[in-house]
Amino acid sequence: MNRRALIALLGGAAAWPLAARAQQAAVPVIGFLHTRTQESYRPFVEVFRRALGEAGYVEGRNVSIEYRFVAGQYDRLPEMAAELVRRQVAVLVAGGGEPSALTAKAATSTIPIVFVMGSDPVKAGVVQAYHRPGGNITGINILTDTLEAKRLALLHELVPKAATVAFLWNPRFASAEAQLRDVQGAADALALKISAVGASTEPEIDAAFEAIAQERIPALAVGADPFLDIQRDKIIALAARHALPTMYQFREHAAAGGLMSYGVDLTDVWRQVGAYVVRVLKGEKPLDLPVLQPTKFELVINARTAKALGLTVPLIMQMTADEVIE
User: Fold this and answer.
1) Residue 66, Cα to own-chain centre: how many angstroms?
2) Which of 207, 227, 287, 310 has its Cα between 20 and 30 A from that of 233?
């Protein structure tokens, strides 16, 4: 081999690591910011990953995902969002309600954001309008806050003799005050009295149930809040211990032993989130993607829990339920 060929060969070899690094850098990174825990949200993360995979984006192969879960500690959101912005992610998914959506919007005005939140994103100042969000952000409004009234009405239908219903809420949640107003308005329309009990920590949840027991309140509605979602098993166990008929927001609660739930199908929601992220990765801008709202809601009743509580589920409610867990 002559000297010129050897130099060319060595020069090419020296460039190989650089080429490899450039190829690696070309793999898009998705930032995933959520208010719950990774373990509690694992099934829906898997749905999201499958939606990406069906469009050809496979984690670990041609796309990377950086996960940040704050476990209901909303004050950690700015730090986690800043980390993802410094990572220069290609798109930032902000799940778990208004706190993560607002934090993501404050963290960057250039990185595309896809949010999932239960309160009205226009009223919250996250987007300018549903059909034309504006800026670098769009997403899905899953209407959890606005469904509080419907959940209360369904609980009243199952426990009609309950003149007072306790409402467990987290005062530290961004849209908590609006939730409480909605529930109070719904209670007034049903001629019910609401006893609001706040809880932002595990000991406060224990204290809330003790207060409900002392007041002999015969039914409970749990507010839509990621921290309370994380405490699902604890709340379900306390409700069973106190023989307290309880309404929750997602199917996962009823499936875990809670009495009943009414809300959106989260599996369908996270398929839609995956589809929006794919569109952004392929070059579409968030301002051209309208904010979506779910059209599928599900009422789930756990018949085993109802029987343990000595409740008879009306036939009409059984027929209209999307699922009755026997």
Assistant:
1) 17
2) 310
